[in-house]
Amino acid sequence: MRRLVPGGAFAPGAVTDIGRVKLSLAPTMRVVVVDARTDRPVADAQVTLDRPAVQGFGQRFDDTTPPTDFLPKGNKATTDAGGVARVRVPLDEAAVIRVAHEDFAIHPLIPVLATEVGEGSLTVALEQGGTVEVVVSDGLGGRAVGVNS
Question: Is 80 exceeded by the pLDDT of residue 78?
Answer without folding.
Answer: yes
